[in-house]
């Protein structure tokens, strides 16, 4: 059974770039690595409905915090069997966003912290009721909110398919979400966490993660 690693962070934090660097480093060492990004836009009806809602479609769906959280959670529930198969066939499965993203944004929208009821609700819904695999390690890519917002704007300008949604345009929400992420990392919510930033050397981080997996310091699924 492979190790389940998750990269979390704000929109525009650079998760895709960090993930690509980690995958390259692990594969260079001969590891079998699979990747998956959530939400699964273009593959999951729930993810696509969520994205459309954040761009003004489907009436007042986006105004309901729990409705949006359920859409993101159902996307992962539908992917659960495939994720287990990936874990069985690889040494490492690396996810770009996972359950902690739902916990962070849901809590932030409710103006709660990482110890609030929204985080507990997401934990019960996704890990307990839906039975999603628990990560072995979660990596928080922490960057300043202003930098993440600038990157998201630049991405939207250069990629017509990456128009900023309501979450990305809400600077206050991004700031609160960053604080919840910090709290989740400090609490080691659901697994061990480690923190990276824009200056983190991906090869060194890949070695550190591999060592932690070998030491068995993650949560056993």
UniProtKB/TrEMBL annotation:
InterPro entries: P-loop_NTPase, Thymidylate_kin-like_dom, Thymidylate_kin_CS, Thymidylate_kinase
Cited Gene3D superfamilies: P-loop containing nucleotide triphosphate hydrolases (3.40.50.300)
Keyword tRNA-binding recorded: no
EC numbers for this chain: 2.7.4.9
Transmembrane parts of this sequence: none
GO annotation terms (biological process): dTDP biosynthetic process; dTTP biosynthetic process; dUDP biosynthetic process
Gene Ontology cellular component annotations, sorted alphabetically: cytosol
Superkingdom field: Bacteria
Signal sequence bounds: none
SUPFAM superfamilies cross-referenced by the UniProt entry: P-loop containing nucleoside triphosphate hydrolases
Domain Thymidylate kinase-like span(s) in chain numbering: 7-204
CDD domains linked to this entry: TMPK
Basic and acidic residues: bias regions: 160-172
UniProt key word NADP: no
Pfam families: Thymidylate_kin (PF02223)
UniProt GO MF annotations: ATP binding; dTMP kinase activity
UniProt keywords, alphabetically: ATP-binding, Kinase, Nucleotide biosynthesis, Nucleotide-binding, Transferase
Residue ranges, annotated region (Disordered): 152-172
Function text: Phosphorylation of dTMP to form dTDP in both de novo and salvage pathways of dTTP synthesis.
HAMAP family noted in UniProt: Thymidylate_kinase (MF_00165)
UniProt cross-references to PANTHER family, sorted A to Z: THYMIDYLATE KINASE (PTHR10344), UMP-CMP KINASE 2, MITOCHONDRIAL (PTHR10344:SF4)
Family: Belongs to the thymidylate kinase family.
Designated name of the protein: Thymidylate kinase
Organism from which the protein derives: Rhodococcus coprophilus
Gene coding for it: tmk
């Amino acid at each position: 059974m492979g190790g389940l690693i998750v990269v979390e962070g704000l929109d525009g934090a650079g998760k895709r770039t960090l993930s690509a660097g980690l995958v390259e480093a692990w594969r260079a060492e001969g590891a079998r690595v699979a990747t998956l990004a959530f939400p699964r836009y273009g593959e999951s009806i729930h993810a696509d409905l969520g994205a459309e809602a954040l761009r003004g479609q489907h009436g007042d769906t986006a105004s309901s915090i729990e409705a949006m959280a359920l859409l993101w959670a159902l996307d992962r529930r539908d992917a659960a069997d495939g994720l287990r198969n990936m874990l069985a066939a690889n040494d490492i499965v690396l996810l770009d966003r996972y359950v902690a993203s739902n916990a962070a944004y849901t809590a932030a929208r409710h103006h709660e912290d990482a110890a609030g009821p929204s985080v507990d609700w997401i934990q019960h819904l996704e890990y307990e009721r839906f039975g999603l695999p628990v990560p072995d390690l979660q990596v928080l890519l922490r960057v300043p909110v202003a930098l993440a917002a600038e990157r998201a704007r630049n991405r939207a300008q250069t990629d017509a398919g990456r128009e900023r949604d309501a979450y990305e345009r809400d600077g206050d929400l991004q700031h609160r979400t960053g604080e919840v992420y910090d709290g989740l990392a400090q609490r080691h919510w659901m697994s061990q966490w480690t923190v990276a930033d824009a200056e983190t050397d991906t090869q060194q981080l890949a070695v550190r993660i591999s060592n932690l997996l070998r030491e068995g310091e993650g949560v056993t699924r």
